[in-house]
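Protocol step 4 of 5: obtain the predicted structure for the target chain.
Materials: sequence only (see below). No template structures provided, no constraints applied. The aim of this step is simply to have a reference model before the mutagenesis design in step 5. Sequence pasted as it appears in the construct record:
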Amino acid sequence: MKNLKGKKIIYILLIGLISRLFFLFFLAKPIFGRVSIFTDSDTFDWAYSIENLIKHGTYSAELSNQYGYFVRMPGYSFFIGIFYLITGCNWDLAFPVIGIAQLLLDVFSIFLIYKIVLKIFSNEKIALIAALLYATYPFIIVWNPVVYSESISVFLLWVGLYYLVYNEKKRNILFSGIFIGFALLCRPQIVLIVPIIVVYLFFHNGYKLKFQKIVYFLLMVSFVYGIWPLRNYINYGKIIYTQDLRGIEGWDNDVLSFMQYIYSVKTDWEPQFSQIIHNEKVVFPRNAYDSKDDSLKLEEAVMLAKNCSSGFSQWIGYWKKPFLEPNCNERVTKLFTELRNNQIKNHPVNYYFIVPVHNLSKALFKMNLAKNNSHYNYILKILFVYRTLLIFLGLFGGVIMLSDKKGEQKLFSIIVLCFFGLLYLYLCAGTSVQLRNIEMRYFIQADVLLLIPASFVINKIIQIKK
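Step 4 output (structure tokens):
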């Protein structure tokens, strides 16, 4: 850090640290509205997976569940497992330590962004603006203390991109591939940036060198990430590239088929999901009843889901005592799957265009963080407007950067814009399980990258005013 002495980046790092500590100690508890600010419902899937590996030699979130081996990809579990061991295998001690560690790593990300932007633009003002935007960006700050993979996946992505832009040395490409691979093991959607980086390397280097660096990068990504699907195939004879939610309590085929069906009709599974588990009257949009046969199937599926579907019974608030067997899961799954297929067949425009567009609108213009945070509602709305503004500012900046004659800005803007486009399209319009389930944290990797072209535009505006 000696070479940074006296530079403005030091003050920005301090701003980033103070803003994160302020959120941790004063805002996290009232905003999250839960007992622990460090954990949420998904935390324990990662935690139990690594705990079972340490104690029983098997990486599984639930040893008694045949799908428990595939609930979570191992990248983040291994990260938090280090702290679990350090604290004497005590999660109550480990979780706060993990939260603090993530916070500190995210502060270091501010410096990484500064160095990345400095390399791309050769302009310290733009680098400082980008660092400041990230230092105060609320939607990364809120995830720092939470034992979820969002914060670490973003950190690993920044490290991978740092080594990518400083690729004069071949070994840096190896490091880039390694860190991107680990980021992918934390959040699978990061795989979308891999082919874009290959394009970047293709246009960034000379003929012979470009292929060497592409091979180095892909080898490292494949080696790091490939351990996961290879383990699944060798140990369990299953080809699973990401994860399988069926290993989580309440996510059996019956619930998954309902989710798949509802996302073929509309953008949210509420209020219908809560109406089922609370044994209330369930009403679907008009296009769900476009034929008598489908109406009868839907009525039967809902009735069975309420009364004898074990996956639904595991959710908090279920109207009677939870159960596992006997159940009618197979019938419920069959009915919702048939209804989904009919929706796609009979309403292709709605399925392939209208629902994805509504998802995109929801992803870009969301205004509320949570329903139970009414005290902070106005502040949260302002923050989401700020997020939307930065997204469009970043998109605008990325387009302007495409006109760069030197090439460095143009090539990096291709990474940012293509990753943003692919990720939003994938999450909003994808057709497989877990897609179309719009949560802001799923987009965070693309959102923070847009801060770089946004800083470019802000610098242009400052220059005009002068």
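Step 4 remarks: Residues 249-346 form one domain. The longest helix spans residues 91-121.
Proceed to step 5.
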